[in-house]
């Protein structure tokens, strides 16, 4: 379960570093696009355009992956809980119960129903 919990955070950090490296690369293209040589400037402008498309695609992809992982988090956790050794899944459910109302969180309840049916 720790892989699921920390994996998303590590993936986000790696994506953030990749975005910063991409911004540096874009800055290098921009610097070359202001060059006095028209051939170098034209090539740099073309590279800037392709780089923009690549960065937008990467940002959209990371966002969609993050949303889907968030949506499936409870389902994955319940599947892992149901496959634990005898007695462990009941202990885990009891730990997750709300202490005030003594009810299972709604997200967990829906995920258990999804797993069972």
Unreliably modeled segments = none
Overall pLDDT confidence:
79
Helix proportion? over 70%
Q: What fraction of residues sit in β-strands?
A: under 5%
The multimeric state of the shown protein is single chain
Number of domains: 1
Structural class: mainly alpha
* SSE pattern, N- to C-terminal: HHHH
Q: Quote the distance from N terminus to C terminus.
A: 22 Å
Question: How many strand segments?
Answer: 0
Shape: rod-shaped
Largest sheet, if any?
none
Rg from C-alpha positions?
A: 23 Å
Question: What's the short version?
Answer:
83% of the residues lie in helices and 0% in strands. With 117 residues, the protein is an all-alpha fold. The protein has one domain.
Main features:
117 residues; mainly alpha; 4 helices; rod-shaped
Task: Describe the fold and architecture.
By secondary structure, this protein is mostly helical. The protein has one domain. The protein has 4 helices and no strands. The protein has helices spanning 2-33, 38-82, 88-96, 106-116. α1 (2-33) packs antiparallel against α2 (38-82) and α2 (38-82) crosses α4. It is rod-shaped and about 75 Å long.
